[in-house]
Amino acid sequence: MPTYVPAEAHGDEAGALLAVLEAQRGGLRRAVLGLTDDQANERPSASELSLAGLVKHVAQTEQSWLENAQERPHSIERTQDTWHLSFRLEDGETLAGMLTFWDGVARRTEEFIRSVPSLNDTFRLPEAPWYPPQARQSMRWLMLHLIEEMARHAGHADILRESLDGKTAFVLVDEERAAQQG
């Protein structure tokens, strides 16, 4: 269930894409409302996924795509041997800390996208077996890819949260509204 973003918040195409991205982020953030670190780290399914791990993963993934688009080196390097660490909190990491980190990444993403002259501007994709060598993509593609990433994991988060305590997105939306009003 996406978060509603008023039409006047969109402005232009970049604003519309940023608003949809934020709506998808909101779905994942909502899934962790009211959870303790222990609850957020539980893995209630056959999967290794936890809600805290999903938050960490999307925050770090968004940051790495932002660094790709800025053609900067990654501040967090992952290899096949360390990829799993992006899906679980390590010693000293907390859900609150990851949410704060993600807020900063989201702010930097918005600042960067609003600063590019055109969504048609391109950047070089990272070296990976699934991309052709020296492949480039547009900032528009970047935004659509981030939306896709957030939406996929927001859906995972809905399932994990409901498995933890039975709360559906509808219940969490009501709780979120009540908290904002009171």
Automatic annotation (TrEMBL):
SUPFAM superfamilies: DinB/YfiT-like putative metalloenzymes (SSF109854)
One Pfam family cited in the UniProt record for this chain: MST
InterPro entries registered for this protein in UniProt: DinB/YfiT-like (IPR034660), MST-like (IPR007061)
Name assigned to this protein: DinB family protein
Organism: Streptomyces auratus AGR0001
